[in-house]
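Figure 6 in text form: structure in, sequence out.
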C-alpha cells in the first residue's frame, strides 16, 4: 500500500541551521514582550505585525516560486519554521491559511494574473485568506455543497452560506467551493472553486465565538454576490478534484499535533520551579507519541516536497494527531495537579483553561475523525 508509506526524512544541515535561527528569533520576540505564548495560536492568534516580521525574514511563502515573492525553499523548510512557531505558541493565524494552502492552490490552478495579484502579497504577510468549504447542516460531507453559482454576464452570482470560516472577518479573500451545475448522478461533478474578494457589501460575515469568548469562526452568507470570470480558480466544474488536492496540506501539518504543546512546556517548567515530582512514565508516553507523530507529519512533508499527493497518509496523521492534542491536556492535569482557570493570574491554570475550551474543535476541524477513518478504510479497500 504505497499510499500509506511514510518513509523517514532526515533534514539537511541547512534546515537544522534554519531551525536555530527561527528559535532565536522567537526567544527575542517573547523576551521583548512582542508576543505571548498561548495554545492553538494557528487558529486564534491573529497578529498581522508578527506575520509581517516573519515575512521580512522570508519565512512566509517558503514553498512559493521566487518570481511570486517566495523563497522556493520548499515544504521541508516550511515544516521546520512552522514547527518552531507552533511549539512556541506564536500568533500565526493571520497568514496561516494563505501560506499553508491557498497560495499553493493559486500556484497549482490559478491564472498568471491571479498569482501575480495575490502571491507576492501573501509572501509579504499582507494578504490573508479564508477557506469557504463547510456549510450548515452538512457536517463533514463536503460533496453536499449547496451554495450556488449562477452564470451571469461576465461572471457568476453566488447565493448560499459557508460556516466555520476561520478569519473571514479579517481576510482579504476566500477560496469558496460552489455548485455551478445542477446536481446529477455524481455529487462530485459540477463543483467550482472561486476567489471571493473581501469585504463585499453583498456578503454578511456573522461571528461564531469560541467557548473562550474569542472571535475566530464565522458564518458567511452570500446574497447575489458577483464573482467575475477572472476570479474562477482553475476550470469550472473541476472544483472537487482541486479542493481535495488541498487536503494533504490542510490535514498533515504539525498544527494537528502541536496546538497544545505550549501547555506541556509551561506545565513542566512550573512543576520544576515548584519542586513537583514529574511522572516519568506518563511524560515518557507523551514524548514517545509526540515524536512518532512528528516523524509521520515530517514524512508527509517530505512526500509533498517530491510533488506527491499523500492525502490518505495525511488523514491518518490528523486522526492520530488530534487525539494526542486532547490526551496531552488530560496528562498535564494529572501530572501537574492543576485545574483550568481562565481568569487566573498564573500561566498554567490559564493556559490549561484555554486548551480545554479549544479542545472540542480538535477532532472536528479539517474533517471529523470518523470521516478521516472512512477515507482511510476506502483507500485500503480499494487497494
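Output sequence:
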Amino acid at each position: 500500500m504505497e499510499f500509506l508509506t511514510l518513509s523517514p526524512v532526515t533534514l539537511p544541515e541547512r534546515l537544522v541551521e534554519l531551525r536555530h535561527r527561527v528559535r532565536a528569533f522567537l526567544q527575542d520576540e517573547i523576551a521583548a514582550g512582542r508576543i505571548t505564548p498561548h495554545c492553538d495560536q494557528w487558529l486564534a492568534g491573529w497578529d498581522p505585525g508578527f506575520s509581517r516580521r516573519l515575512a521580512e525574514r522570508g519565512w512566509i511563502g517558503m514553498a512559493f516560486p521566487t518570481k511570486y515573492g517566495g523563497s522556493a525553499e520548499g515544504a521541508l523548510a516550511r515544516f521546520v519554521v512552522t514547527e518552531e512557531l507552533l511549539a512556541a505558541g506564536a500568533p500565526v493565524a493571520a497568514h496561516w491559511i494563505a501560506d499553508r494552502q491557498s497560495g499553493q492552490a493559486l500556484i497549482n490552478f490559478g491564472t498568471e494574473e491571479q498569482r501575480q495579484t495575490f502571491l507576492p502579497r501573501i509572501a509579504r504577510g499582507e494578504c490573508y485568506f479564508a477557506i469557504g468549504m463547510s456549510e450548515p447542516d452538512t457536517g463533514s460531507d463536503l460533496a453536499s455543497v449547496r451554495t450556488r453559482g449562477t452564470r451571469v454576464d461576465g461572471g457568476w452570482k453566488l447565493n448560499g452560506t459557508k460556516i466555520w470560516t476561520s478569519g473571514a472577518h479579517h481576510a482579504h479573500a476566500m477560496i469558496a467551493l460552489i455548485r455551478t451545475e445542477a446536481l446529477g448522478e455524481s455529487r462530485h461533478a459540477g463543483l467550482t472553486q472561486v476567489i471571493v474578494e473581501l469585504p463585499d457589501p453583498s456578503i454578511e460575515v456573522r461571528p461564531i465565538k469560541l467557548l473562550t469568548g474569542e472571535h475566530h469562526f464565522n458564518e458567511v452568507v452570500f446574497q447575489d454576490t458577483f464573482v467575475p470570470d477572472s476570479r474562477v480558480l482553475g476550470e469550472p466544474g473541476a472544483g472537487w478534484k482541486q479542493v481535495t488536492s488541498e487536503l494533504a496540506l490542510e490535514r498533515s501539518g504539525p498544527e494537528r499535533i502541536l496546538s497544545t504543546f505550549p501547555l506541556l512546556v509551561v506545565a513542566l517548567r512550573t512543576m520544576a520551579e515548584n519542586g513537583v515530582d514529574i511522572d516519568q512514565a506518563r511524560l515518557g508516553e507523551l514524548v514517545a507519541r509526540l515524536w512518532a507523530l512528528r516523524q509521520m507529519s515530517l514524512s508527509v512533508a517530505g512526500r509533498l516536497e517530491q510533488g506527491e499527493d499523500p492525502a490518505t497518509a495525511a488523514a491518518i496523521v490528523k486522526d492520530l494527531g488530534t487525539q494526542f492534542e486532547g490526551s496531552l491536556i488530560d496528562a498535564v492535569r494529572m501530572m501537574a495537579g492543576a485545574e483550568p482557570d481562565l481568569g487566573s493570574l498564573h500561566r498554567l491554570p490559564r493556559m490549561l483553561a484555554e486548551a480545554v475550551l479549544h479542545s472540542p474543535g480538535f477532532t472536528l476541524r479539517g474533517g471529523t475523525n470518523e470521516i478521516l477513518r472512512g477515507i482511510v478504510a476506502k483507500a485500503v479497500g480499494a487497494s
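Caption detail: Residues 127 and 289 are 36 Å apart (CA to CA).
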